[in-house]
Specification:
Layout: E1 4-12, H1 19-27, E2 34-35, E3 48-49, H2 57-61, H3 63-67, H4 71-87, E4 99-104, H5 110-123, H6 132-136, H7 140-149, E5 155-158, H8 164-177, E6 183-190, H9 195-203, E7 232-240, H10 241-246, E8 253-262, H11 275-287, E9 297-299, H12 306-320, E10 328-330, H13 333-336, H14 343-357, E11 359-360, E12 383-384, E13 389-396, E14 400-407
Parallel strand pairs: 4-5, 4-6, 9-10, 9-13
Antiparallel strand pairs: 1-7, 1-8, 2-3, 6-7, 8-14, 11-12, 13-14
Length: about 400
């Protein structure tokens, strides 16, 4: 089977608007969570979010183009621009039929839907924007990226809630490994820090109501009581190894395994026995042709909800047995909040750089030990430690599970 490497990365997220500044923030254990500024939260119980900061879509993408995009698509296209520039293709020399794009968003153009619905209710539905539909549909990030770079291979959008971008990356990996494309641009984007988005998750009692940014997104901590909404995008350029070597591309790392399944248990709650998650991780490691004991680090889904963190811990124990206690298992959502459909892609970037640099990110702001979450979660301070194989988990409403296996490239 063909080997697949990562040759470009781009991101917009609560820690930074590019990969370099974001990774420096991760290594320094910075928290990107703060007071919501996108709207007035006076009537909301939820006051905090992981917002993208100092983002000017018009400057990055052009004023005319950015006005015709929902914010989630703006984030996706900005991250894709960085990733494609990073990958440094000579597009005139590429076979565009062998280049594709799989993007994801858990929710899509919610901001546009809310805005245009409000306009329709107050001014009449004949006044809504002619761009309403192409701005709001969840495949448009993929479409816009494909149009910009002429990606004429497989172009599609994955929607599996918070597992979405892991599925987008995993499906792209298999497309290349199995010979359908040589290059795939993939990842996820989300822009739901708006009244409707926060209000909807608040009504479910899924969000943290703490007003202290350092005690809000606290994965595996006994005092956790809900996740913190984040926003942004993560994009990876995946490439067949020989194709990358032939054009002299720099290589960040290698993706070697992908597993995906479903709990088939509940619309929002994970299976408390962790069976689906455990099987998913085992599928990914098997797909990589590795043994469970080969894995050194897990970037956990780790949402800071009571059910997820305990269930994921149990799933890791079931999947890895005694080796679970030798693993380093951290949640970078402690720094970014939960980016929903973009979470897995941003965390794939973190996992790839962790392997490249020999640095294991911390679970920051950890204080109160929970006996149900008793693995090595790398509390508060990251570690300079060589790791060779890492796994990244993403779990979504509906019971979706998706795990990716990355290997240090040497």
């Amino acid at each position: 089977m063909r080997r697949v490497v990562i040759t470009g990365m781009g991101t917009v997220n609560p820690l930074g608007n590019d990969v370099q500044s974001t990774w420096e923030a991760v290594k320094n254990g910075k928290c990107g969570i703060g007071q919501i500024t996108h709207f007035d939260t006076t009537d909301f119980k939820v006051k905090l979010a992981g917002e993208v900061k100092n983002f000017d879509a018009a400057e990055i993408l052009g004023a005319k183009e950015s006005r015709r995009m929902d914010v989630y698509t703006q984030y996706a296209c900005a991250a894709a621009k960085e990733a494609m520039e990073d990958a440094a293709f000579d597009l005139e020399k590429e076979d565009h039929d062998r280049m594709g794009c799989i993007m994801s968003s858990g929710i899509g153009g919610l901001s546009t839907i809310a805005e245009e619905h409000g306009k329709g209710e107050t001014k009449g539905y004949n006044k809504i924007s002619p761009y309403f539909i192409p701005m709001s549909i969840s495949n448009m990030a993929a479409g816009q990226i494909a149009i910009t770079y002429g990606l004429k291979g497989m172009c599609t959008s994955v929607v599996t809630a918070c597992a979405s971008s892991n599925n987008a990356i995993g499906d792209s990996f298999h497309r290349i490994r199995d010979g359908y494309e040589d290059v795939m641009v993939c990842g996820g984007a989300e822009g739901t820090v708006i009244p409707l988005g926060i209000g909807g998750f608040q009504a479910m009692k899924a969000l943290c109501t703490s007003e202290d940014p350092n005690r809000a997104s606290i994965p595996f901590d006994k005092e956790r009581h809900g996740f913190v909404m984040g926003e942004g995008a993560g994009i990876l350029v995946l490439e067949e190894l020989e194709h990358a070597l032939n054009r002299g591309a720099k290589i960040y790392g290698e993706i070697v395994g992908y597993g995906s399944n479903c709990d088939a248990y509940h619309v929002t709650a994970p299976n408390p026995e962790g069976e689906g998650g455990a099987k998913c991780m085992a599928l990914a490691v098997k797909d990589a042709g590795l043994e469970m004991d080969d894995v050194d680090y897990i970037n956990a889904h780790g949402t800071s909800t009571s059910l997820n963190d305990a269930g994921e811990t149990l799933a890791i124990k079931k999947a890895f047995g005694d080796h679970a206690y030798k693993l380093k298992v951290s949640s970078t959502k402690s720094m970014t909040g939960h980016l929903l459909g973009a979470a897995g892609a941003v965390e794939a970037i973190f996992t790839t750089l962790a392997l490249r640099d020999g640095f294991v990110p911390a679970t920051i702001n950890y204080r109160e030990k929970d006996e149900a979450c008793d693995l090595d979660i790398v509390p508060n301070v990251g570690r300079n430690e060589k790791i060779n194989v890492a796994l990244s988990n993403a779990l979504g409403f509906g019971g979706h599970n998706a795990s990716l296996v990355f290997r240090r490239y040497a």
